[in-house]
Design a protein that fits this description.
The structure holds two protein chains of two kinds. The N and C termini of chain A lie far apart (37 Å). The relative contact order of chain A is 0.33. Chain A is mostly beta strands. In chain A, the strands form two sheets. In chain A, strands 2, 4, 5, 6, 9, 10 and 11 form a seven-stranded mixed sheet that branches. Chain A is 0% helix and 53% strand. Helix content of chain B is 0%, strand content 54%. Chain B is built from no helices and twelve strands. In chain B, strands 2, 5, 6, 10, 11 and 12 form a six-stranded mixed sheet that branches. In chain B, strands 3-9-8-7 form a four-stranded antiparallel sheet, with no helix packed on it. A two-stranded antiparallel ribbon of chain B has the order 1-4. The chains are: A mainly beta, B mainly beta. The interface between A and B is medium-sized, with 23 and 24 residues.
Chain lengths: 114, 110
């Protein structure tokens, strides 16, 4: 079974621009979560989607948003980019009908803001 | 909210040495606990998990036991290999999200 895929793998943007990252979960997985990984803050939860609904959100400003489509694919958007948004953005999907928060991660999108 | 405290790195060991990476958690309720591993340039791979007290997760020679009384989930391996060199993350799962420790860089020398 194919794993979680994320596109693009690398992105370079300028301050003030916006960016959209894409994630395709493992087939049959309906929950998708997003995390930001930086050297200073480590891994931080952004948000989680299930059946096109955001069920949980981390402590990030409103510039960070996401959505999920009917095929469970998800996108996240960051508007008005800041230098501090440079990070590895990881997407994870979860198997259905499990209550143990087990998540499977994609390879990430490396975003560099200049 | 939940928090996870993980042993500071980096850790450098010789091949075949014994490995322990300490992890403690604070959480309301009873979270599931995980160890993830990250190789350079890659995402996180689920290494092992435990979903209730006294459960032992194991995979590829790594083990960790869910200790509710000490709120710990220490990772151990009896004999490390060069290929185990990576960053290891302890995580607790509740409320549909994972809370991660800061990660421990492990380098195994031949």
């Amino acid at each position: 079974k194919a794993g979680v895929t994320q596109t693009p793998r690398y992105l370079i943007k300028t301050r003030g621009q916006q960016v959209t990252l894409s994630c395709s979960p493992i087939s049959g997985h309906r929950s998708v979560s997003w995390y930001q990984q930086t050297p200073g803050q480590g891994l931080q939860f952004l948000f989680e989607y299930f059946s096109e609904t955001q069920r949980n959100k981390g402590n990030f400003p409103g510039r960070f948003s996401g959505r999920q489509f009917s095929n469970s694919r998800s996108e996240m958007n960051v508007s008005t980019l800041e230098l501090g948004d440079s990070a590895l953005y990881l997407c994870a999907s979860s198997p259905p009908f499990q209550a143990h928060h087990e998540q499977y991660f994609g390879p990430g999108t490396r975003l560099t803001v200049t | 909210g939940d928090s996870v405290t993980q042993m500071e790195g980096p850790v450098t060991l010789s091949e075949e040495a014994f490995l322990t990476i300490n992890c403690t958690y604070t959480a309301t309720g009873y979270p599931s606990l995980f160890w993830y591993v990250q190789y350079p340039g890659e995402g996180l791979q689920l290494l092992l998990k435990a979903t209730k007290a006294d459960d032992k997760g194991s995979n590829k020679g790594f083990e960790a036991t869910y200790r509710k009384e000490t709120t710990s989930f220490h990772l151990e391996k009896g004999s490390v290999q060069v290929s185990d060199s990576a960053v290891y993350f302890c995580a607790s799962g509740s409320a549909r999200q994972l809370t991660f420790g800061s990660g421990t860089q492990l380098t195994v020398l031949p």
